[in-house]
Amino acid sequence: MIGFREESDARKCLAALGARGATLGLELHSEKTRLIEFGRYAEERRANRGEGPPETFDVLGFTHISGKTRRGDFTIHRKTSRKKFHAKLADLKEKLSRRRHDDLAQVGAWLHSVYRGLCQYYAVPGNYTRLQQFRDAIQDRWLRTLRRRSQRGRRLTWEKFSKLCTRWLPTPKILHPYPNVRFACHHPR
């Protein structure tokens, strides 16, 4: 992801990247490389042309969305990309199924480490809802898995199960600062 004010500069850079890659025997992936209008003035420019809101794009597991703060200033909203979200849940479902008969404390500790790792990466401002959705989905899949353990497991109530979740799957917290805080440069005076 590279940002430019002028489309002509972006096109020159894209051509240069393609040429440089070609010298190394590489080529840009046509489905993953494109120019989009995004940034502080993209919404206004697109509205003036009668077009919809700026496109979104996915990079490093996040969907980046051009947006505004509560005060109306430009900001980039980031949320876990739908593709990564569903891929992680599918992987988790398969692994939980294999651990169906393991000790509850072992499975809880494993789920805690998976969830903690996910939160440490995706716990950015504005992504709280997606983290909560992931936690809820983990709980749902774990409960379904436990209920499939045996006939006795079908008696597991949500009340009993919620105690396990409270212990092993804490409420998510935003861990990372906003980018303007993280990348702020402080010069000595």
Helix content: 40-55%
Poorly predicted runs of 5 or more residues: none
Put simply, the count of helices is: 7
Strand content: 5-15%
Strands in their spatial order, largest beta sheet: 1-2-3
Total strands: the figure is 3
- Tell me the radius of gyration: 22 Å
Strand/helix succession: HHEEEHHHHH
Biggest sheet, open or closed, and with what strands and sense? 3 strands, antiparallel
Overall form: elongated
Name the structural class: mainly alpha
- The CA-CA distance between the termini, in Å, is 33 Å
The total number of structural domains is 2
Q: What's the average pLDDT?
A: 87
What does this structure look like?
The chain has 189 residues and is mainly α. The chain has two domains: 7-80, no CATH class; 82-168, no CATH class. It is 50% helix and 9% strand. The chain has helices spanning 7-23, 42-48, 82-98, 104-122, 128-147, 158-168, 179-182, and strands at residues 57-59, 62-68, 74-80. A three-stranded antiparallel beta sheet has the order 1-2-3. Strand 1 and strand 2 form a beta hairpin. The longest helix is centred in the C-terminal third of the chain and has 20 residues, at 128-147. It is elongated.
